[in-house]
Batch of 2 targets.
Target 1
Amino acid sequence: MSAQVGRENVVLQSLAQIGACGLFLLRILASIPRSMRHAGETVRQLWFVGAMSLIIIMTCGLFVGLVLGLQLYYVLAIFGGTSASGSVVALAIYRELGPVVTGLLFAGRAGTSITAEIGLMRATDQIAAMEMMAVDPIAYVAAPRFLAGLIAMPLLCCVFCAMGIFGGHLVGVSWLGVDNGTFWSNMTANVDMWKDVINSVIWKSAAFGAVISLIAVFQGYTTAPTSEGVAYATTRTVVASSIAILALDFVLTAFLM
Amino acid sequence: MTDPVHAKPDDRTLVRIRGLTTVLNGKTVFDKLDMDIPRGKVTAIMGPSGTGKTTLLKHITGQMRGKVGEVKVDGLNVPELARDQLFELRERIGYLFQNSALLTDFDVFENVAFPLRQHTKLPEVLIRNIVLTKLQAVGLRGAASLMPSELSGGMARRVALARAIVFDPMLILYDEPFVGLDPIALNQVLKLIRTLNETLCITSVLVAHELDAIKQVADHIYLIANGKVVAQGDPKTIADDGSPWTRQFFGGDADGPVPFQYPADDYAEALGFKQGAA
């Protein structure tokens, strides 16, 4: 009986969190016109979550491309289809690995720091101080970070995809001897600009960016103002973002394909 | 219902609290609390820890809105104000937080300039002059380029004070302003509070425990306990009013109407000594 009540509480709490997060999104969207006054803050956050994430995104993109090129080469070699490695690497990266891995890395790198920063601002009364100075913290703190995540994710995903394809090319062409012309021509023949690049890379990663930023900002903003509260909020950001990315990936793939 | 924005202010009383009742987590913090904060005076609010002094400041600034009772600031009933109206009111209120609450991304200068940059379009030269004037007043003009992490607790509080007075507000609320200040800084802050009051006709509300400091600066003291005002008066006479509250609080006694011990089970039993055992 008590276990059932406990499960019901967890479900209710989760639903309440999702509802609160949705209302928080509405507050952010409503505050975006006002946050335009703080455009400098948005640019600063864009630098922080975007430019500062470049190293990890480029490195991981390269290694994902390298390992994908290697795996696909040996699988395709069984069927004598190594010439298709370029297009398969590109499709795998554009359609799934690019947006999903970039999203997971972005949640770990930028999402956690956004949550921790806002959580500490909450714990040290900086948010309350802004309210007392008649500055709306949603417009000054939350909206710029949300917008920065929304803008940065597609750009980072493009960089990730470029590095992944470079990695696949490095392994397939430079190391294992796939013909350079075949690698590129197969890729350009099979990759559809609208379906694979615009829909999968741009829209999907923008949606992931919005969800990660929203979760990160919401968790930081609503955290308990203690060191333990900030730690829990940071963990929740990674867990919730990862689940949201994978679930949203399925939904978006089903609609966009 | 009267329009809270166009309510007529009382000339003598800046903050008027009537019948404020607050219950937090099942505990009654205020029980029909009544209080008047006179304009242009320094009013101190004292009381045992956990008695709701900071909560009272939050009610005055609308950070916390009571469902029962009235909190009027300059004639405006704070709980009824819309968010924009509340922000307009807050532009006329300075608030000094217990932990200073400086913005850690900005240096001292930018912290003090922050409200000016957010609410005015003053030229940079004027902002610089105002900020340096306020920093000079708190003795930290030379620290303008330091980051909050480079400041001591006392210095951070003085920077927060400079930020709180940057708009020359009608009301300043000081939450524990003397904690962590060395005697020199304490004396200067006391002088500053007094000077601001006298020269700018600012109303000040202090939440503090330091009776000696309060005696030097306050015009009126409220002692709150158990959710009510239990004593009030001027600093010279309040300690001698003879009530058990003032006797215990100002005498620092453990025994009295304010229990020192948090309610608990029998001590001997908790230690494992049964009653009647030899």
Target 2
Amino acid sequence: MVQQLPTSNKGGSSLLVQVQYDQVKEKCDLLSKDFDTGLESVEFCNKNISRFNLVGIEAILIRVICGLVLQNTVNYNIYKGQTNKCQNINVLTPDRRRLTFVMAGLLLSPTEKVFIVHGVQDDYRSDGRSNIDYRPMELETDVVSHASGSARLRLANTDVLVGVKTEIDIPSPDKPNEGKIEFFVDCSANATPEFEGRGGEQLALGISNLLQRAYHSSQALDLKQLCIFEGKQCWKLYVDILILECGGNLCDAVSLAVKAALFNTRIPFVKAALMDGGNVDLQLSDDPYDSKLLNVGSAPLLVTLCKIGDKCVVDPSAEEESCSVISVIVGITGIPNCYCDGGDSLEEKEGKFTTIDMSGPGSLAPKTLKNAVSQGIIAAKLLDKALAKALLRERQENVTLKKHSYGFLK
Amino acid sequence: MPQDYRRFNGPEDSVSYKRFTKDYLKPYNILNDELLNAKELRQDGRALTEARSMCMFFATTQVVSQAKGSAYVERDKTKIICSVFDPREIPHQNEFSQLGQIYCEVKFATFSCPRKRRPHAPDAEEKALSVALRKALEPAVCRHLFPNYQVDVFVYILEHDGACLSNAINAAGLALADAAVPMYDVITASTIAVVGDKIFVDPTESEEYVALTSPETNINHGVIILSMLPELKQISDFTHIGSMDAECITNAMDILEKECIKIVPHVQKVIVANLVKGFEERKKLEKEAAEREQLLNTKMEEWKKLLNAG
Amino acid sequence: MSEVYKLIHPVKFFNDYISKNVRPDGRSFSEQRNIKLNVDAIKTADASALIKCGNTSVICGIKLELATPKAEEPNKGFLITNVELPPLCSSKYRPGPPSDSAQVTSNIVSDIINNSKCVDLTDLCIVPDKLAWVLYCDMLCLDNGGSLVDACIITLMASLKTLRLPTVTYDPETEDIKVDTNVQTKLKLNGLPIATSFAIYKYMDRNVTLVDPSSYEEDMCGGLGANLILCYNKGFLCSSQKFGGSNFSVDCEEKALKIAKERAQLAEEVIDVCIKNYESKTNTV
């Protein structure tokens, strides 16, 4: 049973509300008057669900699965034809149990899906991008003054803040001349409703594992440059990744921000070293400018390739994500030459794969995987060049001008 | 590190005696050279592309009698045991899940690794293996058939001699089949290790170790694990660590695909054997039950006669 | 049919068997299950053994490490025994830290080994106050089919018996340690403690002692695991522990002690034969 509610033309776009319910009809009484007043709140007069508010939603689709409360499924399909924004709705039930409904899983009609799949097939996506184009992003480095290096990246609705901390450590016995690097991901509970409670832990663990694997090889990041005194002391980099907002395509954003933060990292020079028996006593330079920068040109970038139809796209929008069941994540080493001044003219080395992983519940055919991998390497190359250009420009600006910052942290 | 009061702990500063032996800390070149002998054969006499023969032993009641389904996979020295339990409601969640879930836990026995003693508490590698196993199994299981329930898959690695994850996937696939969990296809997996231009199929622990150590020169190195649903020709998980170029990856994919298909007859044999055994056991039980019933009936007749006579 | 009966009338089902002087798996009250032992099953461990006793299977692996001895006991090494009951072995256990029953079993096994004094800890010391062996003995239960402690002790003793310690040279001046794995010495053992579990069931007005109970029988008799564990070393009783279950009479006790003593001898023979076979095999190869 489908009930069509009156459409309004507020703000120049049509608003269509579609409510599907049958068994819940007696229990659920939808007061539709609020939709006309700019979609501020939806109220249910119901034994189990008392009220929930949608604030500032432009276009949305809510799939409420009341498995525990109603044992029924209610679909609210509010469509406005604009960009989608993830929102978090908390439903307060009388027994004070907070249920969180996630709207990231967008529901599309079969026709809309076909439209997206056909677009991907012809390498022309619904927002005008080609299959290997990213959406515009904002990058800012040196945002946290207490960290050795930091960066903040915003890609569409995804917002990531990365800080690098340095500490002196003892190298592991089987790798005496190498430093250490460790990744820690923290998913802020505000980033997406899924992260509430312990929801973000799995994802955080997955991302840090992926990064650890991507940086495992010395061809990705040469850990020898972190060695201070062979077998005795080395630098350990703690890369703390804070996910402020999650709007999809998290791995790519994180890897970009990590590389930018590492590029920005300064390691103090050692002024003097004293040998005291078997121990080494180090004296570090106090001057923040008396420090060295890391060579991170070859640090890997992660590219998520979302499988739609037989083809793959990078940086999928929320609609595109809902057309896909599996994505391939490839980690590809960067091009070191691009990160030196005037290095563009030099010969470029082909990137190498440092990790490949799959995410999502589906599976894919061997041929698709091969195509995805070769597509990933092209996308990564373009992305790395763009990142190098932005980082070099930022560094230049820092030297010549007084820094003009954009972010909220300054 | 907080002290674990639930177990007996040794002294904190204890180190494996192997650290003080002569063989410890061999330079990379020597380790690399040791992998192949003059005849281009590996330490255990295999050719580069030769997998260790699969001697699988698989049984329901013999391996873990308390579990719904269980499997034991042994590939030369690598020994893995896996058990699967009845579905139970997903604990600690307040949202209805339309798809059933698979909970995987991979654990190394403390004595399973040749280089060091494993801690009791799960470490990062075990957690990563658990996630990889779950991802590999998910596409193979008909999860929509048990909504809001989870199936527990526990894997214990008793001895680690390379290709752990792929054999854990093989074992888990068999155990799931044994536990009669509905699946789209059997699931098989295989591993290769790459060092330079050499590709080791089904590597041993020492081969994996060399492949994961970063070399001085800019050569390809790494380990790839691929799991497949062979009948449907679908890749369910692909995991790669190390650094290699695109050509090497595509080459490796072809080899892995072939290896995965090679295992299928072994897996099928085990499943069929298990099925036949189960069928025969059931037939035997039914026969016994019929005999008992007949015995009971004759006794009843006798009593009836006695009663009637009395 | 019998499965249904077992589920609906668990106590009556069990009583029916007991009244006929037979156990549900067909054994008589004082009959134990066969022991199958496989020595040196795990090559990555320094010593190992796998035991199968009915459905119960336990694997033990020993890892050798070096450490400085404790300040209060400078001439003693370490013997660390732990029993692991992973969720894999039974649906009773959940993933996470060790359950109560795993801790209890660990404690029982550790007590038995320490009380029996079968390993002299001073033998494990290399240089007093400087260097000593640490023997990490981890017993991993693969299938919990009852009488867990018995199986753990047998596999632990079999592993300890095959353990060989490499020679260590310690330079007191440079504190340099060198280990030579080519020259190995056997660990000295003082006897061979063997534990025997009993379940005590109260049927009508008599007490029934079941030797080597299965996990089903243990459940029926109440309590976690077996009710009575007796341990003999070289013909002497070295440990006796009673947990829950029914009370039992003096003549029952005498009978139990006799059975435990006989079983200790039997198990010792099994271990000896297995190790002899294993050693002759390794020598010929």
